[in-house]
Write a structure and sequence with these properties.
It is a single chain. This protein is mainly α and 258 residues long. The chain is built from 9 helices and 2 strands. It has one domain: MetI-like (MetI-like fold), CATH 1.10.3720.10. Helix 1 packs antiparallel against helix 6 and helix 2 crosses helix 4. It starts with a helix and ends with a helix.
Length: 258
């Protein structure tokens, strides 16, 4: 049997099974990236709270920062496959053999792993914002959280969008490690299918192509979203109160030159 005949056989037998795996992979990756971003935003905001003059509050802040730093370091410094085994089977050990549902477990595992990376991405994005904007917000009476919500975070999200997109693509590929706890994502389905058909090379060649199509398509869609968020390259700033007819025309070339 030729290679293409083997691929045709695998596809004929397991197409439905593989598409089910694709659906689970996308669901886990998308939901986990969103939850991880929320975790990262919360941690980023907390870790950038200014130091308090109150000693007790400053002490609590120090403890909280230590806990958050430990979380980030542990989950960035260990493989997600190991994290999946420890969390899933650790719960089973503590619960006397009772296990969690697989898909919610997978989302939880990938979310907290992503959250650790997002926390550092968000923190870097916050630090990159000009300090003058913080001072301006405080001068009109905003506290730290109001400044973050209304002034800083909208800019941070725009600046870190490429990193968020990259995390989403990484999560699509990294869901493959969840097969160690039996999550029926794409890699797991391919493993089962290869044992059914005895066409190992053809099966994994097919999912290699499927992973590439997924990541390539999503990357292009996210880049398109980034361009749409940039807005028009040519625009006009309307006149001032003293001279309504005064206008400033800005072209794309001028923006890039700046």
């Amino acid at each position: 049997m030729s290679f293409f005949e083997s691929m045709s056989k695998v596809w004929r037998i397991g197409a439905k099974q593989l598409f089910l795996g694709v659906g689970n992979t996308l669901l886990i990756a998308l939901v986990s990236t969103v939850i991880g971003l929320i975790i990262g935003l919360i941690i980023g905001v907390i870790r950038t709270i200014p130091k308090s003059r109150n000693k007790f509050v400053a002490f609590l802040r120090k403890i909280l920062n230590f806990i958050l730093s430990a979380y980030v370091e542990v989950f960035r410094g260990t493989p997600m496959m190991v994290q999946a085994m420890v969390i899933y089977w650790g719960y089973a050990f503590a619960a006397g053999g009772k296990t969690l549902p697989l898909i919610p477990s997978a989302i939880f595992i990938v979310s907290i792993n992503t959250g650790a990376y997002m926390a550092e991405i968000v923190r870097g994005g916050i630090i990159s914002i000009d300090k003058g904007q913080f001072e301006a917000a405080q001068s009109i009476g905003m506290n730290h959280f109001q400044t973050m919500v209304h002034v800083v975070i909208p800019q941070v999200l725009r600046n870190i969008l490429p990193s968020i997109s990259n995390e989403f693509v990484i999560n699509i590929k990294d869901t493959s490690v969840l097969n160690v706890i039996g999550v029926a994502e794409l890699f797991y389905q391919a493993t089962v299918l290869s044992k059914m058909t005895y066409e190992i090379f053809a099966t994994y060649a097919i999912i290699c192509v499927m992973y590439f199509i997924l990541t390539f398509t999503i990357t292009r869609l996210l880049r398109l979203a980034e361009k749409l968020l940039e807005g028009k390259s040519n625009y006009t700033i309307m006149g001032s109160q003293s001279d309504p007819k005064a206008e400033i025309h800005v072209r794309g070339e001028e923006r890039r030159a700046d």
